[in-house]
Amino acid sequence: MRRYDWLRRIHRLDPDQDYHEIYGISTTHEFPWDFMQALGFALYRTYAVPSIGRLLAETGEFTARPQKRYDDTVLILDAIGEHGMESEQGRTAIRRMNQMHRAYDIPDDDLRYVLATFVVVPKRWIDDYGWRKLSPHEVRASTNYYRALGRRMNISGIPETYAGFETLMDDYERRHFAYDKGAFAVSEATLDLMASFYPGPFGAAMRTASLCLMDPPLRAAFGYQDPPGAVQGAVRGGMRLRGRFVRLLPPRRTPHHARESRNVRGYPNGYRVADLGTFPNGAGCPRGNSQDKPGAGQ
User: Fold this and answer.
1) Which domain holds residue 90?
2) In angstroms, how far is CA 161 from the centroid of its own chain?
3) Which end of the chain is less enclosed by CB atoms within 10 A, N or C?
4) Secondary element (H or E) of residue 51
5) Which residues, 6+ apart, have CB-to-CB distance to 260 below 8 Å?
6) Looking at the domain assignment, is residue 297 inside a domain?
7) pTM of the prediction?
């Protein structure tokens, strides 16, 4: 295979009909690391909306068990992406998301905003730091993918285009970003978790790097000081250098799924998608963790 063969494959597909296949190529072949980082940042920035960050703090899940919440989120989204929304695993994952959301009084506006971050943040991240920019085909496919997911989550008023999602996200953040002590606690727990992915002093460096990769309104909403300009420039420059290096690598022949990340550490003996997430109504998991192979996602 040559470096741009996957992109050629994408351009032979229809982003309005084949959006799942295109999104799968982008996320597991072309940009697996970038999409995982970007989707993590997409979810993180929603904490800066007080109604979202405060609710997550009140549940205690994101502060007391951040690794489990991280793993469950990654694995639920991964099951949908890997197997498809109409597959048994995909339907189970979507059902788990809907069950968790229904347990709380979450406004449709907040759900729409979270969905928008999953469309917009990865494009901006990859355009800034990826080995190439996302093509219009990929942007349209990603938009259609999350529109389809949003419909299955019963979210109303979903934008029809990427531009609509972008406007929604930016306007919502301008109106709602603000400091909240509960949201700050969730942010701190998340940054500590990110730091724990790296040994020793590298963890502290990664926390600083995470702050450098945030935009000023996001940092301000959490009350963080802006890192020195030279440090921000070095971190962002290093990310762009990484993208140039990745461009020189051969294309990925086999898919790399998010469940295969070394940062997903909570299920060494395997898991069932139906057991992931929280059961806030007290029903509990249908059964304990399976003894399937790690990452089986049964």
Assistant:
1) 5-275
2) 19
3) N
4) helix 50-59
5) 295
6) no
7) 0.91
